[in-house]
From TrEMBL:
Organism expressing this protein natively: Bradyrhizobium macuxiense
Domain Beta-lactamase-related: 21-388
One matching Pfam family: Beta-lactamase
Domain of life: Bacteria
PANTHER family to which the protein is assigned, alphabetical: BETA-LACTAMASE FAMILY PROTEIN (AFU_ORTHOLOGUE AFUA_5G07500), BETA-LACTAMASE-RELATED
Record InterPro entries: Beta-lactam-related, Beta-lactam/transpept-like, Diverse_Enzym_Activities
Protein name: Beta-lactamase-related domain-containing protein
Amino acid sequence: MANVPLARSAPFRALRDIRDIDAALQARVNSGEVPGIVAMAAGAQATIYEGAFGLRAQDAPAKMSVDTVFRIASMVKLLTSVAALQLVEQGRLKLDEPASHIDPKLASLQVLIGFDAKGIPQLRPARRPITLRNLLSHTSGFSYPLWDADVVHYLRAARSDPALPRNVLMFDPGSRWAYGASLDHVGRLVEIASGVTLDRYFRDHILRPLSMNDTGFTLSEQQRAREAHLHVRQSDGSLAAQPLERHTVPRIFSGGGGIYSTAPDYLTLLQTLLNGGSFGGKSILRPQTVALMAANQIGDLDAGVMKTTNPAISNDVDFFPGVRLRWGLGHMINLDPVDGGRKAGSLTWAGLYNTYYWIDPASGLAGVIMMQILPFADARALATYRAFERALYHARVAT
């Protein structure tokens, strides 16, 4: 499946004036819409913008700094995708073979086809096996309860009936798109194929080579001292700062969430992909693999629009109303340009606490913006994200 053709334009190498970008972000903090922001952008070779605004915790003295540590939740999925594709390059994983060849737990899964008059789930065997390509493109059949009422209903039924399997699919692999726990399963495939835990694999094959020293599943005391607090949006629109989460060393590492990072670290990963898999003299993927990540893997299936089942955790999600959205191997792809911002064929995703990234290959630009707010897709956080993007593109100097 081919990606949308890109009309290459001159890359971002400098900005005309960053004052408008600073002003746009500072205004969001001054108005109380968001407590604190770190935003950065880069071309293929160098950082072209960085800014930190507001506080790490509302009504507390610590100011945001560029090296502030954030919980980036689902933005770990990009790292997991890179890890899996490294193993594909080595022949230790296959994109289109049944994933159950590596993890037998993915064999013989059942598909939920509905509920009877008494609310009892009706299941049948899946018509085809799950592949790594399905998992990376969220066409596996796995769906999160946060955005799928049928999963909520099924899990409720399974809690009262031990005979029901705990792991079921919402549709046959390859037949639909749904955002779910696919990358958690990819993380497990990486562990099995590599023979090491996911945190160690990341460290040895992605984080250390790219000097991403502030990214990981655990924090040092020095890193914890730089961590931003989560803020919860109240019914009146105000924000309530939360205590820092209790930090324990995990025994199980998720390919789908639970990691920490900083804007500079994550921007390094984005620049590496913008450069075709290499940065700073280090290579983590081949250029053709990076191109495959950016190619539409789901054909004409719609992607990226999600209806919440729990508004306290997430709003409904539709980042680009009216824009056709697809999925590659690790990112969402906009097939149409976004007014005032990214071009067609750009790549993006996000984390639950309102952290966001994008890569615009046609413009030679990558950007990241980090906040710590619930619910996900918070309207004011999204407005801040859009203000950053628009100001950045407005300030561009193509050379």
